[in-house]
Amino acid sequence: MRDDTIHTAPVPLKWVGPISVSGNVMTGLQEVPLATYETPLWPSVGRGAKVSTLTERGIVATLVDERMARSVLFEADDAGTAVAAMQALNARRDELQQVVAGASRFARLVDIHHQIVGNLLFVRFELTTGDASGHNMVTLASDRLMDHILSTVPGLRYGSISGNYCSDKKATAVNGILGRGKNIVTELLIPREVVTRRLHTSPEAIAELNVRKNLIGTITAGGLRSANAHYANMLLAFYLATGQDAANIVEGSQGITHAEVRGGDLYFSCTLPNLIVGTVGNGKDLPFVGENLARLDCVADDRAPGENARRLAVLCAATVLCGELSLMAAQTNPGELMAAHLTIERKAR
After folding, report:
1. Which has the closest alpha carbon to 10: 32, 37, 29?
2. Catalytic residue among 31, 38, 265, 297, which?
3. Which of 99, 116, 273, 284 has the most other CB atoms within 10 Å of its CB?
4. What gap in Å lies between CA 235 and CA 225, rounded to an integer?
């Protein structure tokens, strides 16, 4: 018998921090919520958060870019027709922007990319979407754009509203190159004494392990636009706690960790080009999500459209750095990682 009842699946949630953050979006101390079954993640991120408070500027988070993408697929008469179509579209961007504005007052067309395969034309529309993560907004805008293009550009026929050149919830090179969502770089300069006392290792050990593990190891494994230890762990916990589409950790976890020794201190950074988060939209109406977003100060009414989502993305990226730093430090010491898991997870039973 069919059961239409909506059930809930409780996931343990804990607030961690505070994290010290500065940069071109926000400055201050902020605790963050993490929903996870992997309980060692809380103290691990907490250790990185503590380190951030012991540095001069904390985690410097720089918003590099923001755009949400949806690619559509057209069937053209031939490759020449596809080329002519793209030339026409690039010459009519202002007209296309008007079509987008008719779909949503928050959507703005910022760029168009394309690929031609035989007589198939893949067009990637990139839009800013205010405080929404933008899945539905870019799809609606793309649907309107397709209708407009099919009625005004000769030689094209409908293929699909999504042609996978987006690429949504898939690990692809194009997202790592062009970005999908918020593109954020986080940086932390940690004094040697703090590395030694709080992380029980050295700047040299972390920098060397990053090259050998995250760079060489990932290349050896055939990684795609990724060179990190475990971005997905922090992303999933943060996404679940704040009402995000958790499947977007697939492209979200594509990112690069960089570490080097500077004057004896440790420079540590995480680059995340595909953070897909929003403060409005589906999932945000759940009571616990609303409470968490409010505690994160990400639902302020006096901010311009998009500013709440940018703050949320910065806090998410800072959380990723905290967990990445802590794990990398642990893995420089034989047995530390497994000992922590055994101690914490068995203790929780």
Report:
1. 37
2. 38
3. 273
4. 17
Query: Is residue 347 helix, strand or coil?
Result: helix
From the CB of residue 300, how many other CB atoms can be counted at a distance below 10 Å? 11
* Separation between Cα atoms, residue 233 and residue 137, nearest integer Å: 27
- Quote the mean pLDDT of the chain: 94
**Could you confirm whether 3 is annotated as catalytic?**
no
Instruction: Give the whole-angstrom CA distance, residue 104 versus residue 44.
Output: 41
Q: State pLDDT tens for residues 149-180.
A: 999 999 999 999 999 999 999 999 999 999 99
Inform me whether the pLDDT recorded for 217 exceeds 60.
yes
Indicate which residue of 245, 297, 307, 336 is catalytic. Answer: 245
CATH class of the domain comprising 67-160: alpha beta
Q: What's residue 341's pLDDT?
A: 56
Q: Tell whether the model's pLDDT for residue 10 goes beyond 90.
A: no
Is there a contact between 267 and 187 (Cβ–Cβ < 8 Å)?
Answer: yes
pLDDT digits (tens, 9 = 90+) for 249-300: 999 999 999 999 999 999 999 999 999 999 998 888 899 999 999 999 999 9
307 is catalytic: no
Give the other-Cβ count within 10 Å of 40's Cβ. 20
Which strand (E) or helix (H) includes residue 176? helix 173-178
Query: 132 or 9: which carries more pLDDT confidence?
Result: 132
Active site residue 38: yes
Query: Nearest CA to 178 among 81, 254, 102?
Result: 254
Asked: is 13-65+181-348 a CATH 3.90.770.10 domain? The reply is yes
Inter-axis angle of helices 192-199 and 307-330, nearest 10: 70
Range(s) for CATH 3.30.70.420 in the chain?
67-160
CATH 3.90.770.10 domain residues, the chain: 13-65+181-348
Q: What is the mean pLDDT of residues 11-37?
A: 97
Residues 155/159/165/169 CA torsion (nearest 10 deg): 160
| 5 burial level (CB within 10 Å; 0-12, 13-18, 19+) | exposed
CA distance 88 to 114: 13
